[in-house]
What does this fold into?
Amino acid sequence: MSVRVRVAPSPTGFLHVGTAQSALYNWLFARHQGGKFFVRFEDTDKERSKKEFEEEMTQTLKWLKLDWDEEITVVSNNLPRHQEMLSKLLSEDKAFYCHHTKEELEAERKEQEEKKLPPRHVCGFKNNERGKEAGGIVRLKVDETSDRIIAFDDAIRGKVEFKQSLLGDFAIGRAADDPLYHFAVVVDDVDMKITHILRGEDHISNTPKHILIYEALGFSLPVFAHLPLLLGIDRSKLSKRHGDTAVANYMNDYLPEAIVNFLGCLGYTFSKEIISKEEMVQEFELAKVHKSGAIFDVQKLNWINSQWIKKLSPQEFKQKAGLPQIPDIVVPLITERLEKFSDAKEFSYLWQQPEYDPSLLKWKKGELSDAKSALEKVLESFKDISWDKETLKAKLDEIAGGDRGMVYWPLRAALSGKEKSPDPVELSLVLGKEEVIKRIDIAVKKLS
Ligand SMILES: [Zn+2]
It folds into this structure.
């Protein structure tokens, strides 16, 4: 049996990081198994589904380089088939029309809530003639007196069980020509010959309903596997109040390789922390996906991104950071320290004269006058010196005597204009003699 999997987002917003993770795990599983991976838009919610979100999700999945095997499909294109399947269930007496009004259903729901009963609608129309009269919501007939336990072997979580009697006669269509999500998703998965359904844990309670729909339609069941939820730092379900949840908001600051690496490791322990998606494919096994939720920790993402940034060539870095004008020689100084592309501008002193307040030049154990005298000595000795690491270091140590901070601090500040930066010898080598002398001169003048 050849593996066929899909990710099936509703195009009602930007691609969520949880959906991106589902897409990645489906992709990894398909590629590891030599199977197929599809993307399908579940646009059954006509009011909230938008073409622009389909396009955004498509672009973002492409940016993540999760390639799919067939053109992206849209559920509404399959509407005649959904209607045919709804009619089939109605004609076979496996589904019926519920003529209860919205108000009646709402009152029932409220009453159940007050009595702390599980919400379900056992419909009086299912076994009488009016249930056959067209109009109203289409519901699946579910025997509420049955003591059946609906069980399935989740490929990640093991055996999962639900009581059939708690489900009620759940809705499968707003009308006979208007299928609901849970119905459309089953028909589409059958039509696309999906073999494994890997999706978020939030869908686990829908699975018994889906199983009953498969059975009513006479189709064999796929394998179900529910991925752990992404959690915020406080261990509650990841939401906007924890920060950005749309992949789009990470695209400027992070590399796609870093996002994929980060999402892959949330829910799976690979053999190493910095791993490409191709390497993940080699290792990926469904049964090894974690059962419990994983914390979406941006600090961790930043660290992973910093490791991927280090791998970039100067050319790639300059292009991604939007800094085509900077000299190649400064790139390693930045990439050694950078977590997010937007922070690259913090390193502008590497290619332009920094702006700073003269007080920055003062070493904590000295006065401004000490800084001035140290910089004057450096300026004098640098004018005629061999420009290599050992010579520069030896000269600075000689001027400093026993207290390196007295020289290293003001020099570093004069070169970078920052509280924190690479050490002054490293900076001097990158900036070059002429530029260094110019900057020390400016610093001395600030102190005069
Ligand atoms: Zn009803």
